[in-house]
Design a protein that fits this description.
- It is a single chain.
- The radius of gyration is 13 Å and the shape is globular.
- The protein is mainly α and about 100 residues long.
- It has a single domain, classed as ACP-like (Non-ribosomal Peptide Synthetase Peptidyl Carrier Protein, Chain A), CATH 1.10.1200.
- About 65% of the residues lie in helices and about 0% in strands.
- The two termini are about 25 Å apart.
Length: about 100
């Protein structure tokens, strides 16, 4: 079993990123553990996580710091679901690797 490194996101890598995002949600967005457990890849970011504008900024800033990446302004338009965020994190993380 080999992992395709051509930009594809493996299920394992997606799960690792999702686990880290859930930790961020619980610790930095002060979400209750029961609510965090409900977060899945198809959860809408703003509506599903019930984020106000301050919480959205907190999420993006914390993700950037935690993963060592920077989102461009146009990236925010692409982030509709948690899956979109996971893919952006993965692509930005991969581009940092020498």
């Amino acid at each position: 079993m080999s992992e395709n490194n051509g930009g594809d996101l493996s299920a394992r890598k997606a799960e690792e990123i999702l686990v880290r995002l859930k930790k961020i949600a619980e610790e930095n967005l002060e979400m209750k553990p029961e609510r965090v457990a409900e977060i899945g890849l198809d959860t809408p970011i703003v509506e599903g996580l019930e984020l106000d504008s301050l919480a959205q900024v907190t999420l993006i800033t914390t993700v950037e710091n935690d993963f060592g990446i920077v989102f461009e302004p146009e990236d925010r338009e692409q982030m509709r679901t948690v899956r979109d965020l996971v893919h952006l994190i993965h692509s930005r993380s991969e581009s940092r690797v020498p």
